[in-house]
Amino acid sequence: MNATLGSPIPLRFTFPPNCIDSKGNMRKIGETWKEGIFSTCSCTGPMQLQCFSVVLPPPVIFSCKDKQRNTREPGDVWLEDPKTNCTCTSNNFVACKRLSEPVCLDVSGQFRKNFETWLNGSCVECACVNGSINCTVYDVIITPGLYKVDESPTCQLCDIRLQTALSSNACIAFRHQRAKLTECASGGFYIQDTHLCNGIEECPDGSDEKNCENVVCKDEEGKVLVMKSTKDWIVSRCLSCFCIKGLVTCKRTLTINFPAFFRAAYQYEETCKQPTCNILEFVRNNKKGCEGAELIKDRGIIYEGQTWKAGGCDFYFNGSLNHQECPMMTRPVCYVFNGFVCCASQCPGRMLASVF
Questions:
Q1: How far apart are CA 212 and CA 195, in angstroms?
Q2: Furthest-apart CA pair in the chain: how many Å?
Q3: For the residues of 224-259, what is the DSSP string, one character each?
Q4: What one-character DSSP code corresponds to residue 63?
Q5: Of 242, 241, 268, which is closest to residue 257 (Cα–Cα)?
Q6: CB of 211 closer than 8 Å to CB of 223
Q7: Mapping DSSP to helix (H, G, I), strand (E, B) and coil, where does residue 282 land?
Q8: What's the CA gap between 70 and 109, in Å, rounded?
Q9: Cβ atoms within 10 A of the Cβ of 212, count?
Q10: Cα separation of 128 and 115, whole Å?
Q11: Distance (Å, whole) CA 39 – CA 44
């Protein structure tokens, strides 16, 4: 049929039966191609694209595992057993080494030898015993001569981390003096060795004063005077006492000088021993005087502080061995000292020739 003027003429448009990818390339229907590394696209119809992203599985990361399946980081060190030391290497490989004897690994990561002891703070003492760490926490209270010590066993990982931070001067003092302390029989208390058998019960159970008959000495009034045969009691600069098998022996060393000779002196010892000598009287009478003077006329010894009469004059020995000139005379007598005689006016020097 012929078309007449004015009638509409149908138009035919041809759509491309294909698809165009992201780069402008023509793709046929049903064709599949890669759009980059991780995407795949398909032409499903005229100008219809369908793309899918490729999801890759995560990379496999290997890690160190100990015997208990705990994850270990590179550089970690641990013990599989007391004789097996293991390390996680930088490439996450577990390397183990067999040891010749058991060891311990403390909380700080330090290896400890078998039977080694160490401190975690001043009040916690630990020891490695066949691969196990045994610790003891100390609570120390110090009173004069006596240490009260409470010992609490604890495991390595219980409350040891809290105790490690503590510091106590009492614990430090107890540790430093421990070699010089004796534990009381009932336990829990320590006493200084120098306080044993001193006549005073300082241990709560009194064990520090038991079995002391052979080391305790007493004076004639029953008072404890000297303790132990290895110790002496210094009464004065020239008098000391010793306790030997329950009896006291006192010794005084005198410096005897001659009044007529400058610096002429010798040493003279006096000894008093129980039971033949009264220790109490000997100490009371002799603890002050340490010098004497020997008179030429009758060979008698005059002790420091004593007076006597001779040639119509009063003489007084004041024990001034180191004086080189006449001392200040506070009374009208003759002072005898260090080879010299100094007299007041009542006793002229010419009268003294026959005295010494």
A1: 12
A2: 193
A3: EEEE-TT-EEE-SSSEEEEEETTEEEEEEEEEEE-T
A4: -
A5: 268
A6: no
A7: helix
A8: 17
A9: 15
A10: 5
A11: 16
Q: DSSP letters of 7-55?
A: ----------SSEE-TTS-EE-TT-EEESSSSEEEEEEETTEEEEEEPP
Task: Give the span between the Cα atoms of 337 and 18, in whole angstroms.
Answer: 143
> Tokens 């039971």 — which residue?
275
pTM: 0.40
Copy the structure tokens of residue 229.
């045969």
Handedness of CA 279, 282, 286, 288 (dihedral sign): positive
- DSSP letter at 158 equals S
The SS3 call for residue 163 is helix
Q: Which helix (H) or strand (E) holds 140?
A: strand 132-143
Q: Which residues does residue 183 pair with via DSSP β-bridges, in sequence order?
A: 190
Determine the 3-state secondary structure of 151 from DSSP: strand
Instruction: Per residue of the chain (356 residues), give pLDDT as tens.
Output: 444 455 555 544 445 568 888 888 888 888 888 887 778 888 888 878 888 876 766 666 678 888 888 899 898 988 888 899 999 998 888 999 999 899 988 877 888 999 998 887 788 888 888 888 888 888 888 887 789 998 888 765 544 544 444 557 888 888 888 888 999 998 899 998 878 876 678 899 988 878 776 566 777 777 766 655 556 778 888 888 887 767 888 999 888 877 666 667 788 888 999 889 998 889 888 887 788 887 766 667 777 778 877 777 788 877 765 666 666 666 777 777 766 777 765 565 444 444 45
293 touches 317 (CB < 8 A): yes
CB proximity list for 79: less than 8 A, separation 6 or greater: 85, 86, 103, 104, 105, 131
